Amino acid sequence: MSAIPPILEIQKLSAGYDRRRVVQELDLAIAPGEILLLLGHNGAGKTTLLSALFGLLAPSAGRVLYDGRDITARAPRNNVKNGIAFVPQGHAVFRRLTVHENLVLGGFTVTDKSEIARRIGQVEDLFPILRERRSQLAGTMSGGQQQMLAIGIALMLSPRLLILDEPSIGLAPNLVSAVMDSVQRVRASLGATILIVEQNIEKSLPIADRVMIMRTGRTVYCGPPDALTDRTVLVQYL
């Protein structure tokens, strides 16, 4: 039996700003339905890597393959149409619009109103708080609720690959747990593949199928999370 091909593959990818290389010759393959956790200190190159994957930054070398097709430096709008969604750092919501209006905008590529309604229902099933607060202005919600809404907006695109850049940033510990739980529910309910960058190792490690650790733009570990539960081992890589 042949192995299932990766949904996303990175081959010798390098990227940076001006003449400074931040990401250096990275190789990575992500399997369909996998939750891959990306760790590393500030400046390790994590956000630069995500930007290069999503088309926000043109790599200086290497290739990005999605479903076996070369999408290197492809425009983000085309990646969105092709099932890739990106939730950047911070609460990426329209603060002056209601929760419902935010979700409708999230489905901007969908022309069928009944399909938009179906997807909103699906998101609200995943995050019941969004159904309860559907008429509330997004900017008046708690940080954790706004982060769930930001993920919900991305899910309106029915992505096959969801990229999350530090979804727990600035949140209280109890809200971090809620956001990590929501990531697991997204995978379980929708079958989405998830690439998540996180600083909160304690909360994110248990939800990961595999962990990649970056240091100065290179991969220093890529393997199972179980090997990193001993903090003395983890510290060697960070």
Descriptive overview:
The protein is an alpha/beta fold. It has a domain of 162 residues: P-loop containing nucleotide triphosphate hydrolases (Rossmann fold), CATH 3.40.50.300. It is built from nine helices and ten strands. The strands form two sheets. Strands 6-7-8-3-9-10 form a six-stranded mixed β-sheet, with helices on both faces. Helix 3 runs parallel beside helix 6 and helix 6 packs parallel to helix 7. The termini are far apart. The mean pLDDT is 92.
- Structural classification: alpha/beta
Our estimate of the beta-strand percent is: 25-35%
What is the N-to-C order of secondary-structure elements (H for helix, E for strand)? EEEHEEHEHHHHEHEHEEH
Can you tell me the CATH topology of the domain at 8-90 and 159-237?
Rossmann fold
Helix content: 25-40%
Oligomer: single chain
CATH architecture name of the domain at 8-90 and 159-237:
3-Layer(aba) Sandwich
Given as residue ranges, the uncertain stretches (5+ residues, pLDDT < 50) are: none
Query: What's the Cα radius of gyration?
Result: 18 Å
In what order do the strands lie side by side in the largest sheet? Answer: 6-7-8-3-9-10
Tally the beta strands. 10
Summarize the structure.
The protein is of the alpha/beta class and 238 residues long. It has 9 helices and 10 strands.
Label this structure with key terms.
Rossmann fold; about 35% helix; 6-stranded mixed β-sheet; 9 helices; alpha/beta; about 240 residues; 4-stranded antiparallel β-sheet; single chain; globular
